[in-house]
Amino acid sequence: MSSLVLIGGSIIIFALAYITYGAWLTKEWGVDPTRKTPAHEMNDGIDYVPTSKSVLLGHHFASIAGAGPINGPIQAAIFGWVPVLLWVVVGSIFVGGVHDYGSLYASVRHKGKSIGEIIHANMGKKGMMLFSIFAWLTLILVVAAFTNIVASTFATVPAAASSSVMFIFLAVAFGILVYRKGVSLKIGTIIGVAILFFCVYLGTLFPMTLSVNAWIAIMCVYIFVASTAPVWILLQPRDYLNSFLLYAMIAGAVIGIVIDNPSIQLPAVTAFNVNGQYLFPMLFVTVACGAISGFHSLVGSGTTSKQVENEGDTKLIGFGSMLIEGVLAVVALITAAYISGGELTELLKGGPANVFSSGVGSFMTKIGIPFHIGKSFAALAVSAFALTSLDTATRLARFIFQEFFDNPEKEKQNPLTNMYVSTGITVIIGGWLAVGGFARIWPIFGSANQLLASLSLLAIAVWLKKSGKNYHMLTLPMIFMLAVTLSALVLLIQGNLAKGNYILVIFPVLLFILAIVLAVEGYPIIFGKDKDKEIPKAN
What we know:
It is a single chain. It contains 21 helices and 2 strands. By secondary structure, the protein is mostly helical. The protein has one domain: CATH 1.20.1740.10. Strands 1-2 form a two-stranded antiparallel ribbon. Strand 1 (273-274) and strand 2 (277-278) form a beta hairpin. Helix 1 packs parallel to helix 5 (81-108), helix 7 (125-156) packs across helix 18 (419-434) and helix 9 (185-205) packs across helix 11. The chain starts with a helix and ends in a 13-residue tail after the last helix.
């Protein structure tokens, strides 16, 4: 099989899906470009900030991309390239795309509130509290997994570490100049992107060499600061500038694949059971962000919805970003599929990011870029976007934690609603789990993340039904993902019990129970059997 057919065919299918299916969703849901968004109604200069769609697309895409669409497809390649490719393409369009678009749109219609608050408005306080606990636990796993990924990448590729540190200072300068000093976005972008790529070069000259645990400690300090700072000074400008890094990496890899057109060496299908890993449900859990991710709903409803300038932009930002991520997942699959089994096994010793970086570095040699520079560039992109997801996840966990303990009726608030206290608790627990290692955390993160997606689909479907809009495109993905993730959690619980990893049993058990209770709460509403109470029609 030709790599060119895989990547070219996928891009064409994604483009057609955006034009046709995306337009149909927009019509069915009644997206209204003339309606005033929360960013304008509640502009506070910190979290609610009207932002142009080009900047917000970069911020949102950088936040959701992370390492998920890279690590997941490469790890899932043990089942063969056909199952992974089919799930990435079908999942990105009909499951992940609908999920991302719907969660962003629903949040914009609920004053930029989180999915938990949407559940509160449409399913009641009990559902909101259960979902908030579930989402916070999932975000803890996101923080742990991505902290470990970033720290491991920095320790393995020191050039990526030094470049990333420089990016942070560049982002702060960009935010101040554009948002406070009046420099135009166009001029700021040209200068910022130029300096961004210069930082990549400087990173190769001045690598920072530290241990994994040292980087974990540094990451914990960084995400504490980044998640409590105003969104315009670091989070938004860094994500926007970093998006150009990722676009360039995807473009370089795709062009290299087109020129080289390497043959796929990986078997089309291996077996249903590979070393104790079953294709169902583990394929759909392992691919994770490459097809659907519950984390995306938290980003869309946590930070992005508060910055949407025009409701019509939600299709590009929500649906479009997921399809671009699908392209990245196909590229990641090809980096694992075009090499022989023995070489893949050797590269995997450095982690999935090492496989991806080596593959992209190889593809970039076809456009005249030396392998070592291409590999460092790809590793830098992976770490940069894992870092954006990391501090976004920490900020979202802080929002959810504060919302959970907030009681507007009380004059004196619970100390746990303080953003520094809530952030500190999140960072400490996430950092502690990160020390346990990526390999132990990722399976639980994948299951929790996909289960969160099914619950978000439930929340969106309930709201759409109560709003009198078409919600049927959500029910089948919701049921499928619920079946997948509950099955995966059972297998994980069994596996960790057998190994004596009791700490890693607690998380799956809690998530399983919470998911079942939430599903029971939402089922009567979705399927028209909610006879006990009437909830007013949503807006």
